[in-house]
Amino acid sequence: MKFIVQILLLGLAGTAWAQLPADSSRNGVPNPLLQSDTIHLSLATAQELAVERNSALLGASYRLHAAEADTVGARLVPNPQLSVNTSYVNLLGRPIDFSTSSNSLRLDQVIQLGGKRGYRIETAEESVAAVRADFVNQIFQTRADVKDSYIDAAYAQKQIELAQESYDLFARLVDASQIRLKAGDIGEQDVTKLLLTELTFRQALSDAQQSLIDALARLRQTVHLDANRPVRIDYQFQPTSPVYVSDTLHAIALRSRADLWAQEHRVLSAEHQTHLAKANAWPDLDVGVELDRQGPDFKNYFGGGIGIAIPLFSRNQDDIMRTDANYRASQYDLQSVELSIHNDVATAYAKYESSLSVLGGYPNKMVDLAGDIRTVAMNNYTKGHISLLDLLESQRIYNDAIQNYYSALYKLAKNQTLLERAVGVQLF
Q: Is 428 a domain residue?
């Protein structure tokens, strides 16, 4: 099952392998999103662009290729060695006398014993699998970073909408109050209070715009977009979300976290490395064949030989000790990663449940109910049925209710992303 999940994630990871020009997509076809003045960026598109254009991911893909070269080298066998020798040549003779020379051709081949080549291959394959899992994890974290930045920008955009709505309403109310002031229905002090309240909403609108500028800047940096390109996002904060059982999430995390896969492969690589170190204690066999031609009749003689080191003093004790210690350390590292995963899931799930609990306390159609209260207060004040103090109190109640509601939605969305990071797979 884990192997199937890895293959699926690696298929998604493949988008990061394509090298793309700054304003192009695959196969040299211009990306229409990057050709218009304003980019209408969905969350899925932002994540895809980040994976395609992230220089860190492109660099990681080449490091993965470099790691795969280790498996190629592990499968290679030592090259044979050819030796050519000539002796007993009379260089002082004129002409040079070869009549008594001795010529020999020798071919030697090292034959590795103890299964060294197999252990090298297994070690290299597990090391590459660990690097590949790190690459998958890097892609997943990049997508999560984009989602975090996107939600921040969406929340800032929603804050602007709310601030703009309140500012427009109070601007119209100030205009109506000026008319009532001329008619003598209200005093100048009430108009002054409204003007000061309008300035408060104007400042809130300006603060929201600054927050959106900062959030979009972070999003552009994450997605690798031009800093001067206008961006429009479209994200709907959902009041309800599916509920997961904590035990199920722990099980999913142990199957899906790519950093855990990487450490598991590192443990296997270290284990194979210990086997290789023990195999290296066995000497290799050097087999050679030789053809000799000796003068003056230049008769051909055939010979051969076998050479092997005697492991009398050195039996690779240092490497065996070193690799065994590294193997034990990797096992403890694996336990540490597993413990970290359980802590991550428990912490993220607690925050997720808390967000759901807070949001569950809000009534259905919260925005409509709060809007109705404010609208009624506005109409009653315009008609002179309530005082300015009552109007401002209604506006404060509306602002607090709406801000708290969307803040709860925002925290839920952020905690959903946090839970996805902890589990290692998209849940929502």
A: no
